[in-house]
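HOLO CASE FILE
Compound: flavin-adenine dinucleotide
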Amino acid sequence: MNDCDEGRGGPVLMWFRRDLRLADNPALAWALRTGRPVIPFFLLDDEERRRGGASRWWLHGSLNALGEDLGRIGSRLVLRSGPAEGAIAALAEEAGASDIVWNRLYEPTLIKRDEGVESRCRDAGMAPRSFNAALLFEPCAVSTRTGRHYRVFTPFWRQCLKQGFEPAEGAVRRLLPPADWPASEELANWRLRPTAPDWASGLREAWQPGEAGARSRLERFLGERASGYAEGREFPADEGTGRLSPHLHFGEVGPRQVAATLGAVEPGSGAGAFLRQIGWREFSHHLLYHNPDMDSVNLQRGFDPMPWRDDPEGLRAWQQGRTGYPLVDAGMRELWTTGWMHNRVRMVAASFLTKHLLIDWRLGARWFLDTLVDADLANNSAGWQWVAGSGADAAPYFRIFNPTAQSQRFDAGGAYLRKWLPELRRLPDKWIHAPWEAPETVLAEAGVGIGETWPRPIVDHREARERALGIYRTVVREGA
Ligand SMILES: Cc1cc2nc3c(=O)[nH]c(=O)nc-3n(C[C@H](O)[C@H](O)[C@H](O)COP(=O)(O)OP(=O)(O)OC[C@H]3O[C@@H](n4cnc5c(N)ncnc54)[C@H](O)[C@@H]3O)c2cc1C
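Model generated. Tokens follow.
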């Protein structure tokens, strides 16, 4: 793309997708540089409608915030719905636009959609242009010495850091409006928020979707937690992580902005550890781009014969936080209430489903996509496959998290458990991690009845571990 190229004429269409911000938005910045009127729009097509419930709630808030932000710089957000190619062609014709810009996405169905839109626009005599706003390193920008994509994180990230990345751009401060605005649909009519019942009160309490919310999260993290991140990130009660994942997914803040605010990163520092997690996000996108069926197909095909158990009751107990294992149940309830779960607890809960219950990781991944506000096909698929043991990176199948030991180690004082499991609140620290082992007198004093106020564990850890090891060993031996 030539920076001096000012496009063809008429207003420029700016298609907002998962880049719902005014700062460090290369497509929007290009539109501004043409000096012509800009029509920002968002399209609700089947791809967007397919989002899970929590993600749809977030999208409503984020579009609302973006509309207000655009209003402050003399513009607005036009809302349209329908299949992308037709809806965009109609909007372009109505607006007399011959240029359209957007920022690229890397999920297989979105790539296909965008290719369709691109060719339809070209057929109509328009000039589509796309940019990178979502990643530090686009999936094709990093390859091994032999020109292949990476399958292991550490060498991937080492190569990324060697290459360096582009700096973030500033915010757009004024947009020229068109003489006539095309018609817009009403956000409220899209019904992205739940109504009957309204289950989103916990989400409203926990989050502020939009660019301002993202900025304040990032500032708070830098001010209060970044320096202690390397250790603090493991303890779910401490709020030691950035909680930027939904903001990053919707592009309310971009990874270049995050990296820029960290400044010079010393090896072993909190900022270095944080940047490395951003690296995992990059790696997941790299993997998904090069393995487009990664959400449904094992990265290691040797895992295909895995005899997953059909256990709807076990799945339901896991979803509802009723397995009897406090850390798993606290995590699943945090997820249901706030749309988010701490990474350590995600690993333990996912391990419990796939190893203790031997339930197919794809069922767990689906539940996460429906309930997470940061639901993201790349990160979620990579996370589940990593835990299940079928992933690209080294995750030995014999690593089976012991949910009680994890709880004792990472929530020793039980603060996280007490927050999400009120029925266990009065148990002493010693017993809260494994209430079924507590003496009757202790249980009675704390008002806990095993099998009554608190579920009996749905599997015995030791037996479940042996069962999983046996099955995994056979599958790995036969698949190798
Ligand atoms: C089973 C499972 C499912 C997951 N599903 C998702 C998902 O749908 N969406 C999602 O964004 N993350 C997912 N993760 C990764 C991780 O748990 C979250 O990104 C993280 O907990 C978000 O919290 P944070 O913003 O405070 O992270 P921080 O610790 O502050 O990290 C900063 C950012 O780095 C990225 N990041 C951190 N850890 C990872 C990781 N392991 N993989 C990829 N990116 C990472 C996120 O964008 C995060 O916001 C999943 C992990 C597991 C084990």
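CASE NOTES: Strands lie at 12-16, 38-44, 78-81, 99-103, 127-131. The longest strand covers residues 38-44.
CLOSED: yes
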